[in-house]
């Protein structure tokens, strides 16, 4: 996915590996490494969300996923109350930060 007019600079997609379905309603917070909140939101019914200003500031950022609330809502115990993905913004390219989630593990990568 290339950045086009109207596409947020940062997108995410959260999938629940336990159920094999999108993780809807996961609260998200985008912060600078210094703790300044840049944006908040939550995943939609397809587990997707776009966040942030039109152009992200260069440097280190953190995207926090409130995974504990997602699992509690399903009645599932979890080891990770939240997941923080730290990454570096080096330019103005669109960034996609997906997360594959389960109650006792998660994985992420730089998406496209």
UniProtKB/TrEMBL annotation:
Kindly provide the name given to this protein in its UniProt entry. Answer: 5-hydroxyisourate hydrolase
Question: What InterPro entries does this protein's entry cite?
Answer: Hydroxyisourate_hydrolase, Transthyretin/HIU_hydrolase, Transthyretin/HIU_hydrolase_d, Transthyretin/HIU_hydrolase_sf
**One GO MF term:** hydroxyisourate hydrolase activity
Q: What does the function comment of this entry state?
A: Catalyzes the hydrolysis of 5-hydroxyisourate (HIU) to 2-oxo-4-hydroxy-4-carboxy-5-ureidoimidazoline (OHCU).
Which SUPFAM superfamilies does the record associate with it?
Answer: Transthyretin (synonym: prealbumin)
The cross-references to Pfam families, in alphabetical order and at most eight, read: Transthyretin (PF00576)
What gene, per UniProt, encodes this protein? uraH
Query: Which reactions appear under catalytic activity for this entry?
Result: 5-hydroxyisourate + H2O = 5-hydroxy-2-oxo-4-ureido-2,5-dihydro-1H-imidazole-5-carboxylate + H(+)
Family statement: Belongs to the transthyretin family. 5-hydroxyisourate hydrolase subfamily.
Give EC number(s), comma-separated. Answer: 3.5.2.17
Domain spans labelled Transthyretin/hydroxyisourate hydrolase: 10-111
Q: Which PANTHER family match?
A: 5-HYDROXYISOURATE HYDROLASE, URICASE AND TRANSTHYRETIN-RELATED
Known partners and oligomeric status: Homotetramer.
Q: Specify the species.
A: Curtobacterium subtropicum
What keywords are assigned to this protein?
Hydrolase, Purine metabolism
